[in-house]
Amino acid sequence: MPGEDVDDTFKILIATDIHLGYGEKDAIRGNDSLVAFEEILDNGKKHDVDFILLGGDLFHENKPSRKILHGCLALLRKYCMGDKPIQYEFLSDQSVDFSHCQFPILNHEDQNLNVATPVLSIHGNHDDPTGQGNLCALDLLHTAGFVNYFGKTTSLEKIEISPLLLQKGSTKMALYGLGSIRDERLHRMFLHKNVSMLRPKEDKDDWFNMFVIHQNRAKHGATNYIPEQFLDDFLDLVIWGHEHECRIDPEWNGIQNFYVSQPGSSIATSLSEGETAKKHIGLLQVKGKDFKMTKIPLETVRHLYGSI
Amino acid sequence: MPGEDVDDTFKILIATDIHLGYGEKDAIRGNDSLVAFEEILDNGKKHDVDFILLGGDLFHENKPSRKILHGCLALLRKYCMGDKPIQYEFLSDQSVDFSHCQFPILNHEDQNLNVATPVLSIHGNHDDPTGQGNLCALDLLHTAGFVNYFGKTTSLEKIEISPLLLQKGSTKMALYGLGSIRDERLHRMFLHKNVSMLRPKEDKDDWFNMFVIHQNRAKHGATNYIPEQFLDDFLDLVIWGHEHECRIDPEWNGIQNFYVSQPGSSIATSLSEGETAKKHIGLLQVKGKDFKMTKIPLETVRHLYGSI
Question: DSSP for B52-104?
């Protein structure tokens, strides 16, 4: 079981849809999103994870306010920098994996930065690349050296997802990421077989294959969601961002033979049924092809109902 | 003379009014401000300076566009991080000097950052603190660990300017900074004796006293400028930001017994007479109480007239 042999077990903190800046002008709730983010980062430290994986929508606004961007930078500098050695190896080619970034390098591989806890993130639909230079807020964090921004695609026709390849002891992980794309377009690209996931050539069957995606999972119409059966069946675990309801306990898809974990947002943004439940993040442990997801309740989250 | 004994001589690159983002939507000139900033940073590297001192208005817009902020972060990471050891000591209390910052520490004193060339900057009238949290764009750069933002005052009634105290070999420097304040208000505060400059108690006469200020120097009306005679006469050199005309050669003020150097902007922002001259930055060398300012022409600057 994962967790028993620490040298071979990845420990990853999983969170998504943090929506920094949500309700920032509210006199009472204005800081809630930053408070939740701090609780998440603090959990990463407390559980001594190898890295933190975020599933998109770290920011609520495409152009976050100065206060929110500053608060985010400050938290990342406080919690993610430090002397803890990185316990895993990065095997794939950074210059390819991060070719969309001005610094195509992982922050913990930069000799000028002392990173204790790397953060890896894809973008969501709220913080997707736009405007001059096709940049998003994660580009600012990546270039500042605080986040590793992956899963950005530039082609509108054809997507090839190349995984980040990581190894800790005997455990090998292929981490696939795809930042948010308009559902209808991605749906169509899947139907036309224009989305492919590359696989490592060596020891093909030894990798734990994880995919982080930020799309509609629930069917809102014929084509504005991504059915699970569109995804490759060699995957072991899909981390599904965008949906705010916490369904973080991995759900088995018997047709595709993979698990799906939907962490849900760390802040309540609507009065819907799904958002009334307790919010959680996950501590994911992976050893070989086995994994265990442990739910961690978020204590600071204030719900939209009630009078906390 | 400064420059002869490198161990006792501060080498400082002086620039001001870089106005990142000026004309950024212009199809031809859009990148000019970033190009000029790169030339400035490159000069800092080439001349192996101890630090770079900026006199305000690094940004043209109070809320710089993502493209400009990203470009600025990228240049600072590229040029200011690295293995070069810092050759001077910082003697004053960082937690006081940078008490207005969330990380009240110089970037090169942070064990998690490997800084080769520190940048010190005050804010100007274009990039002054505003809005929630009273933050400015320099706060983002300071918190990201790329700039040391000083000279911010919070009181509207009374200003006490405490100097950063630096020592290199036998040379001691007291560096005073005052970020831009509305001219009329600052003028009135000076008249009412509400602006004071603190001086180190020990070896009072041994310090080279330098003041960086960002205000109107030219008289535009009775009170909307700061007359040089308002400034303390113990100063040795005043670096005057805000005025865009390059008058970087130090001018002697015989009444106050100090020199004033006005570097001018590194980008032409108006068609005025003063902006048609060649743009320069300065290489300032300070040894004991002596200094030398060497003009460095900026080669990439495109003027508003002509067809370069």
Answer: EEE-S-SBSSSS--HHHHHHHHHHHHHHHBSSPPP-SEE-S-HHHHTTTSSS-
ipTM, 2 dp: 0.95
B127 touches chain A (CB under 8 A): no
Give kind and range of the element (H or E) at residue B45. Answer: helix B32-46
Looking at residue B34, its amino acid is L
- Alpha-carbon distance values, A88 to A55, A172, A173 (Å): 21, 10, 10
* Cβ–Cβ gap A66/B139 under 8 Å: yes
Radius of gyration of chain A (CA): 18
Contacts of A239 (CB under 8 A, 6+ apart): A14, A16, A53, A55, A210, A211, A212, A213, A261, A262, A263
Report yes or no: B290 and B272 within 8 Å, Cβ to Cβ: no
Count chain A–chain B contacts defined by CB atoms under 8 A. Answer: 94
- List of domains in chain A: 6-297 (3.60.21.10)
Write the CB contacts of B222 (distance below 8 Å, at least 6 apart in sequence).
none
Helix A66-80 to helix A137-144 angle (10° resolution) is: 40
pTM (2 decimals)? 0.96
Mean pLDDT of chain A: 94
Q: Which of A69, A103, A111 sits opposite B140 (nearest CB)?
A: A69
pLDDT per residue as tens digits for the range B16-63: 999 999 999 998 889 999 999 999 999 999 999 999 999 999 999 999
Q: Which of B126, B142, B187, B242 is catalytic?
A: B126
Out of A65, A70, A77, closest to residue B139 by CB: A70
The band of A278, judged by pLDDT with boundaries at 50, 70 and 90, is: confident
At residue B306, the pLDDT reads: 47
